Amino acid sequence: MTFYDEMQRYNNPELRERINSATKPEIERVINRKTALTVGDFAKLLAPLASDYLEEMARRASMITLQHFGRTVLLYTPLYLSNYCVNHCVYCGFNYTNSIPRRKLSLAEVEAEAEAIAKTGLKHLLILTGESRRHSPVDYIRECVQVLKKYFSSISIEIYPLGVEEYAQLIKAGVDGLTIYQEVYSETAYAGFHPGGPKRNYRFRLEAPERAGAAGIRTINIGALLGLHDWRSEAFFTGLHAYYLQQKFPEIEISLSVPRIRPEVGGFTPESPVSDRELVQIILAFRLFLPRVGITLSTRESPRMRDHLIKLGVTKVSAGSLTTVGGHSEAEPGIGQFEIADRRSVQEMYQAITRLGYKPIYKDWHLLEA
Questions:
Q1: Facing residues of 74 across strands?
Q2: H or E segment at 106?
Q3: How much of the chain, in percent, has pLDDT values that exceed 70?
Q4: Dihedrals φ, ψ of 110, to 5°?
Q5: 210: helix, coil or strand?
Q6: What is the pLDDT of residue 370?
Q7: What is the pLDDT of residues 26-70, one digit of tens each?
C-alpha cells in the first residue's frame, strides 16, 4: 500500500463535483470547525465559493500558524551542482533538448560555493542537480555533501528519485531532508508533460518520499508545479499526499511547497495559470487542513507577494537564490533553470521578515556526528 493506491480512492469524477459543489454554509462550517478537518472538509476549502471567504480563512490560518510555529520564518538557499539532464520535461530550462551550456561543479567549486553562501550566515542548504545519473551519480552527490556539511547544519536534496538504500547512503553522509515535486498529480497530464527520459515513470517518482521515509530522512517537502493542470485537483492531491505522509511517518517533518510555473529558456507557456488570489486560497486551505505542516515559498514569487504570504501561513522561505550552476561564487553565472522573481539578498530578506514582525531563523537543526 502506497500513496498511489490511496490516490485511487479519490481519483474519480466525484472529486471534482465534491469540490465544485460546496455551498457557502458548508464552507462556513469548515472554517469555524474547532476539531481537526477531514479530507472532505479540505476539498470544500478549495471550492469556487470558498474564494469569498479568504479573509475569514486568513484570520484562522494566521492563528493556527502562530500556535504551531510562532513568529518564526526559516531561511535557506539553493545550490545547483549540475544542470546535465536526460529528461524532456517541456516546462523546464534544463530540458535535454534545450541548447544551453551544461556543466557540473568539481569538489573544489562546491567548496567555493559553500564558502560564498556560508558568509551570509545561512545554515540550511538545498542542493539540486539535473536528472542525469551518469553526470551526477549518487557517489558524486555524497562527496559533495561531505564537503558541504563542514559549512551547513542542514542539507536537503532535490535530485532524481532514488531507491531506499541510495537514500540511506546520502543520509549517512549528512543529508537530512528531501524535496521532490511530483510536478503533476494527474497521471494523464503527467505523461504529456514528460515525453521522454526516466522521469516518465510516474509511480516511481510519486513513491520517492515513502522510500526516503523508510530510509530514515528527517524532513520531506513535496509539491505540485502550479500552472500545469487544474489547480483545484492538483492542490487537493498535494494536500492529501502530505496528510498521508504525516500519518505514515509521524516522526518525520512534512512540508509543502507551492511553486508557480516561471519563464524559462524553452519558452513554455502554462495552459492553467494560477492567479495570486488562487495561490492565497491554496495556502490557506493547506494551513487549515494541515496545522503542523511547514509551508515553503521560493523566490519564484515577487517580493510583494512573498511578504504578504508570510503572514498567511508560510514558515520557510529561500533567500539570495540563484538557479544557475556555480552562481554563488562566480561573477558571470550561466543560464538558470527558470527566472527568479525575488532577487533580494539574504540580508535584505532578513530585514523584510523582521519588519513584518517575524523572527528570521538561520538554524533550527544540527546533525550530530555519529
A1: 316, 361
A2: none
A3: 96
A4: -60, -45
A5: helix
A6: 41
A7: 999 999 999 999 999 999 999 999 999 999 999 999 999 999 999
- pLDDT band per the 50, 70, 90 thresholds, residue 98: confident
Cell 500513496, residue located: 3
Please classify residue 333 by burial: count the beta carbons closer than 10 Å to its beta carbon, then call 0-12 exposed, 13-18 middle and 19+ buried: middle
Report pLDDT for 270: 87
DSSP conformation class of 114: H
Whole-number Å distance between alpha carbons of 300 and 333: 18
Alpha-carbon distance 112 to 157, whole Å? 19
Decide: helix, strand or coil at residue 151. coil
Going by the DSSP 8-state scheme, the letter that residue 37 receives in this structure is P
Four-residue CA torsion sign, 291, 357, 300, 329: negative
Phi, psi of 90 (to 5 degrees): -70, -15
Distance, in Å, from the CA atom of 245 to the CA atom of 252, rounded to the nearest integer, reads 8
Question: 107-118 and 138-148 helices cross at what angle (nearest 10)?
Answer: 40
Cα–Cα dist 195/199, whole Å: 9
Which stretch of DSSP H or E encloses residue 67?
helix 54-69
Q: Give the cell for residue 1.
A: 500500500
Q: Give 75: exposed, middle or buried? Use CB within 10 Å, 0-12, 13-18, 19+.
A: buried
Q: Is the pLDDT of residue 333 over 80?
A: no
Check the CA dihedral 282-284-288-294 and report its sign: positive
Query: What H or E segment, with its residue span, contains residue 217?
Result: none
Q: What is the pTM of this model?
A: 0.95
CA atoms within 13 A on the CB side of 46: 27
Q: Mark 233-256 as b/e (b = at least 16 C-beta within 10 Å).
A: bbbbbbbbbbbbbbebbeebbbbb
Residue-level pLDDT at 264? 64
Length of the chain measured in residues: 370
Stronger pLDDT, 370 or 202, i.e. the higher one? 202
Write out the E strands in the chain.
72-82, 124-129, 154-158, 177-183, 219-224, 253-257, 294-297, 316-318, 359-361
CA distance 72 to 75: 10
Contact 126, 76 (CB under 8 A): yes
Q: Which residues pair with 127 in a beta bridge?
A: 79, 157
